[in-house]
Amino acid sequence: MQLGEPPFRGDQLSRHYFARLTDEPDQMTDLPAASRASLAAALLPRLLTSERELSCDQGMTRKTLWRTFDRARVESVLMRYPDRATMCVSSQAGCGMGCPFCATGQAGLTRNLSAGEIVEQVVAGARVLAAGGAGGSPCRLSNVVFMGMGEPLANYRSVLSAVRRITDPLPHGLGLSQRHVTVSTVGLVPAMHRLTAEGLAVTLAVSLHAPDDELRDQLVPVNRRWPVAEVLDAAWGYASVTGRRVSIEYALIRDINDQPWRADALGVLLSGRLVHVNLIPLNPTPGSKWTASAPGAMDAFVGRLESHGVPVTVRDTRGSEIDGACGQLAASAAG
Ligand code: SAH
Ligand code: SF4
What we know:
Elements: H1 8-19, H2 36-43, E1 48-56, E2 61-68, E3 73-80, E4 85-88, E5 92-94, H3 103-107, E6 109-112, H4 115-130, E7 143-146, H5 156-167, E8 181-185, H6 189-196, E9 203-207, H7 213-219, H8 228-242, E10 246-252, H9 260-270, E11 275-281, H10 295-307, E12 312-314, H11 328-334
Parallel strand pairs: 4-7, 7-8, 8-9, 9-10, 10-11, 11-12
Antiparallel strand pairs: 1-2, 2-3, 3-4, 5-6
Helix pairs in contact: 4-5, 6-8, 9-10
């Protein structure tokens, strides 16, 4: 290092950041007092500044709107459950994929986040939990999902190095289980193949939203490049190489993709595969004509999938009253 300090200082700083969850020089009492501040500034620069915090569910759900050093906005959501605590992180400021039902997609891509900016969201969540700040006694962060702003596989290098930091053992990483990290993708097939070859045990989630290309071309424009069949082939490749159950995300949009025949078509595509379907009632974005499916339609959709032997759950809509869904807080702050 260029700071005229011995090499083990880097290790000491790692330990402060990942094991003690601090980047405050005052608390680094094992470092020489004279160089604490300069070491922390050089090795642990403040990457994100919290601009707004919102919470609901008696504090068990907590959303943060962050500003990067160059004033880009990103957001993360911490969700505490009886048996686990999940941090939902952003991988990009904005997103270039343009899905019309998604608030982030409306705003376009500002830039990729660095691995450090992604990891900092996770560490911030772990810090809140360790301080007992998410409704209850102190606890550990157990899960990370890449379901905030951005398409993680469009920022491949940073996301992969963030995944390694999050899952490497202490003190060089946060020590989370790879199985408890979920990378959600819109279906960038070449990057899915690349991820398959990494030898990681992370959970892959694929945002399908329609079983047929005609509708998926509209809901997920990148489908025109990599259609349903290719996306699912890549997903099955991931499942067979890693042995990990793939999660299929399907936002239920009233009268758009929630018809019984589409549930059957989806059931036929997924039947017999190592898969689990997550149905998400659409969280309507401001000004959109689309809304969530009626409860009856949701139940019917679940029933049809189950009749094909496909495991399915309806995702809880935690945090929807604080614009918890993808990109909505940043969008409302910008507007
Ligand atoms: N870009 C990635 C990951 C971030 S989005 C992806 O699309 O998979 C995380 C999930 O939230 C995706 O499944 C996405 O389709 C879903 N989503 C986005 N906007 C939504 C909305 N308004 N209501 C419900 N789900 C939404
Ligand atoms: Fe991007 Fe995902 Fe939103 Fe589509 S749903 S615009 S891929 S963040």
